[in-house]
Design a protein that fits this description.
The protein is an alpha+beta fold. Helices cover 29% and strands 20% of the residues. The protein is built from nine helices and 18 strands. α7 runs parallel beside α9. Bound molecules: flavin-adenine dinucleotide.
């Protein structure tokens, strides 16, 4: 490590490489990212100005002052507006960031939207290009890559930081369980497979947004222009330019999903690998507020106690250090053996989760994604699901 105070050596059992897009650790290990880099640069300028527009992203395609290119504007806190504009082909970042060039273009944009001569100050500016790159594996021995060090997602999907948080949420529990000896290296391999899968899905989606904002060929431009002109009168094409795509990835192919459960038999509710749907239980009372940070068994029952055999599996699991909570759903009174009871008086939760009878259950992983669900749960099936979710 190098610091202003001088270099020093740090010993560590594990290293999480969260050192950003230019990751020195990735370079030092000689790892290559896979994917595409798009041509063309965008200038990004934060200007201080008072504009009477709501807080939403505004996109201007092919304006007179910047033919063939796209401009984005949105409000930020503290009186700042962000203006992104695409540069004409061949212009270098150095040319684009010259103050007189920026002033001319930002003034032209302001004039186009009816604010000619408006006063503004530059707060910050930079240049970027869109890239859709990921390492094919995030776990290399005891070095684990996360965030921009692991993948570079195009800005038009607004997913880079969101995805970095999701990486961290996933890594935290996978690594903690391995460090505590509750699962083996296969769990970390799963973290990598799930998060690389998420990055590739985002790359697909955000790649579409990128091609819409900055069409790389005549064909893409034709399609983009057709969508824009048709969308003025035809509602069916409007979703084609809905490029705010942020949502959690569903780990539907995860090896932690229980193969012997009833996932395929459910007609509603979150499936294998999906995050749980939130459900309003009462005024100001929601399902997600009740979930903990470990494994969570949502057990649907109208009885007064958990079945003994089930309780024994729960207790044995906890005895070996696995955090597992049981939330009973649907009973009028507290349920013996459950940590919490949610009455679900109007039956909303059961309906949304596709549950018709007592004895159904969902098992959520510590990141709350579903890894098993049953129309009828018994001790053997619960044990099998826990074994699958915590591979040796
Ligand atoms: C203009 C712009 C707009 C964006 N808008 C959005 C958006 O709207 N939504 C969104 O989700 N994402 C957005 N992103 C992407 C988002 O900023 C990044 O994806 C996110 O910051 C990645 O987080 P990170 O922690 O992985 O990396 P970084 O934020 O880059 O953090 C890495 C840190 O590691 C430090 N570091 C590096 N090397 C070392 C070292 N050797 N020792 C110690 N420290 C080191 C760096 O100084 C840095 O602080 C945007 C990005 C840009 C450029």
């Amino acid at each position: 490590m190098d610091t202003p105070e001088g270099p020093y050596t740090l010993d560590t059992d594990w290293l999480i490489a969260a050192d950003g897009a230019r990751s020195g650790i990735r370079t030092a290990m000689g790892l290559q990212m896979e994917g595409a880099s798009y041509e063309g640069f965008f200038v990004i300028a934060d200007i201080r100005i008072d504009l009477p527009y709501p807080t939403e992203r505004r996109a201007y395609f092919d304006p007179d002052w910047n033919r063939g290119n796209t401009i984005l504007m949105h409000r930020e806190p503290h009186g700042i507006w962000r203006v992104d504009y695409q540069l004409p082909p061949g212009e270098t970042p150095e040319q684009a960031l010259r103050p007189e060039s920026m002033k001319q273009r930002i003034d032209a944009q302001l004039a186009m939207i009816g604010h000619a001569g408006a006063e503004w100050d530059m707060d910050w500016c930079s240049v970027y290009s869109a890239r859709t790159l990921t390492l094919p594996d995030y776990v290399h021995g005891r070095v684990i890559f996360t965030g921009d060090a692991a993948h570079l997602l195009p800005i038009f999907g607004v997913r880079g930081a969101n995805t970095a948080f999701q990486d961290a949420q996933s890594l935290a529990w996978h690594l903690a369980f391995v460090l505590k000896g509750l699962a083996g290296p296969a769990l970390l391999a799963n973290h990598s497979a799930e998060r690389v899968g998420a990055a590739r899905e985002i790359i697909d989606e955000a790649g579409k947004s990128t091609r819409f904002m900055a069409p790389p060929s005549r064909g893409f431009r034709l399609l983009r222009d057709a969508v824009l002109s048709l969308s003025l009168t035809q509602a069916f094409v409007r979703p084609l330019y809905h490029w705010r795509t942020s949502r959690p990835h569903e780990y539907s192919a995860s090896v932690l999903n229980s193969p012997g459960d009833d996932n395929a038999l459910f007609t509603a509710g979150p499936a294998h690998g999906a995050p749980p749907q939130n459900v309003r239980l009462a005024p100001d009372d929601f399902l997600l507020d009740h979930l903990g940070g470990g494994f969570e068994l949502l057990y649907f029952t109208e009885g007064v106690a958990l079945p003994n055999a089930l309780l024994r599996v729960v207790q044995a699991t906890r005895a070996r250090g696995v955090p597992l909570r049981v939330t009973a759903v649907g009973a009028a009174a507290p349920v013996a053996g459950a940590d919490l009871a949610l009455p679900d008086v109007d039956g909303h939760l059961r309906a949304r989760y596709g549950v018709q009878a007592s004895g159904a259950a969902y098992l959520l992983r510590p990141d709350q994604h579903v890894c098993a669900r049953w129309l009828t749960l018994d001790a053997t099936r619960l044990q099998a699901a826990l074994n699958t979710a915590l591979p040796p």
